[in-house]
Design goal:
By secondary structure, the protein is mostly beta strands. The protein has 3 helices and 14 strands. The chain has an 8-stranded antiparallel β-sheet with strand order 13-12-9-10-11-8-7-14, with no helix packed on it. The protein has a 6-stranded mixed barrel with strand order 1-5-2-4-3-6. Its main location: secreted.
Length: 255
């Protein structure tokens, strides 16, 4: 067997093993890059399309990721936890293929001016993650431009309760929900004032939920439903004298 055929056989063997492992324990195949600021420096905290703001002020810390459109799913994946590991690259993957758990906090936009295989890593339907500095350097060499990875959904471990950050006006009520445990991925929210029934809210963007209500002066309760079907109600989270711009804490999901 000549050298070329040997290389082809080796590549086929590696691909077969990769697909076999993926099928056996729910790992899926993707690519990943290190998120960088406009000046080219590595970015420690990724905020943005999910609405979490400065991640250094949240429980997500430096372990965060921006997702390509297919994974981001129009913002419904915000808050989900992914375990990621670098695979099948001797030069760039750290020895032993250690993994890092990240929270989906942002959207990685497509770049139609570049090929999906060269620069347009987040073009649809690519499955790609832009990892924060702490996450990327925990699984691969910083110098790597792009790495092959495997990822899978995992349960989110959070300290403290759900956080409800209130914004809006007398005719528009909006809440950002963060620090969500278990699935992490919120698919339904209801709000209740002390004089109202439970009122469904709509997703505005990311994990911001809204309703055209005037709830000023009422104590607020929230019901949150996750993608796995779990629902939890936090009663009287905010007192009647709550203010826009404030954050209040409710109950937490536990496995």
């Amino acid at each position: 067997m000549d050298y070329g055929l040997q290389q082809l056989a080796l590549c086929l063997f590696i691909l077969c093993r990769l697909f076999q492992v993926t099928a056996e324990d729910d790992w899926k195949i993707a690519t990943a890059t290190l998120s960088r600021d406009k000046d080219g420096s590595s970015s420690v905290n990724i905020g943005g399309a999910c609405g979490y703001g400065d991640l250094s002020q949240t429980s997500y810390g430096g372990y965060s990721a921006g997702l390509s459109g297919k994974l981001f799913n129009r913002g419904s994946s915000c808050g989900a936890c992914l375990e990621v590991r670098c695979v099948n690259h001797i030069r760039w993957c750290l020895p032993g293929s250690p993994s890092a758990v990240v929270t989906a906090t942002d959207f990685c936009p497509p770049n139609s001016g570049l090929s999906s295989d060269y620069g347009g890593w987040c073009n649809f339907p690519k499955e790609h993650l832009e990892l924060s500095h702490a996450a990327f350097t925990g699984i691969a060499e910083t110098r790597a431009e792009i790495i092959p990875v495997q990822y899978r959904r995992v349960k989110c471990g959070r300290r403290g309760g759900l956080r409800f950050s209130l914004n809006g006006s007398s005719h528009f009520f909006q809440v950002l929900i963060s620090n969500v445990g278990l699935d992490g991925e919120v698919v339904g929210v209801k709000v209740k004032g002390h004089t109202t029934a439970w009122i469904p809210m709509a997703r505005n963007w990311g994990q911001h939920w809204h309703s055209s209500l005037d709830l000023i002066g009422q104590s607020l309760s929230f019901e949150v439903t996750l993608i796995g079907g779990n629902t939890i109600a936090s009663y009287d989270v905010a007192p009647p004298y709550w203010r826009f711009g404030m954050t209040y804490q409710g109950k937490q999901f536990h496995s």
